[in-house]
Amino acid sequence: MTEAGITVSWSMKPSDWLDIAAIIQRAGVPAMVAFARDTKASARQPVRYATFFLRGGWRGLPPVSAVPPPRPASAAGKRPHCGHPDCDPITRTREIEDGRGLRNLHPCPDCHPTAKGQAA
């Protein structure tokens, strides 16, 4: 919440801490921060205590969805093709030979920087 610009006191009763732990498990921290940010923006007085958010709506937050958000259909956010001769420009995969001399397809480590060192 501090990163979102919300600085409040977290002095609470033990039962409030148990409620917060359950809300984190059910709804997740991002939903709690978004609720606090929106609530703080519309509050008539400065918010000084986290219990304001707990009593004001955190308990009613819906469960986090198990379905991941849809991926954008366009390639607008896609990195440009790396240009490596072994990298397929469509699938962005490379045939990489392992220690036994077998070639397998793997995500290109240049086109997929988060896939470095991971098998496909």
Question: Can you describe what's shown?
Answer:
- The chain folds into two domains: 14-60, no CATH class; 77-120, no CATH class.
- 28% of the residues lie in helices and 8% in strands.
- The chain contains three helices and two strands.
- Strands 1-2 form a two-stranded antiparallel sheet.
- Strand 1 (93-97) and strand 2 (103-107) form a beta hairpin.
Basic shape = elongated
Q: What share of the residues lie within helices? A: 25-40%
Strand order of the largest sheet: 1-2
Number of structural domains: 2
User: What percent of residues are in strands?
Assistant: 5-15%
Sheet/helix structural class: alpha+beta
Please count the helical segments: 3
CA-atom Rg in angstroms:
23 Å
Mean pLDDT: 83
Largest sheet properties: 2 strands, antiparallel
According to DSSP, the number of beta strands is 2
SSE order, as H and E?
A: HHHEE
Uncertain residue ranges: none
End-to-end Cα distance, whole Å, is 36 Å
Strand and helix map with partners:
Elements: H1 14-27, H2 29-42, H3 51-56, E1 93-97, E2 103-107
Antiparallel strand pairs: 1-2
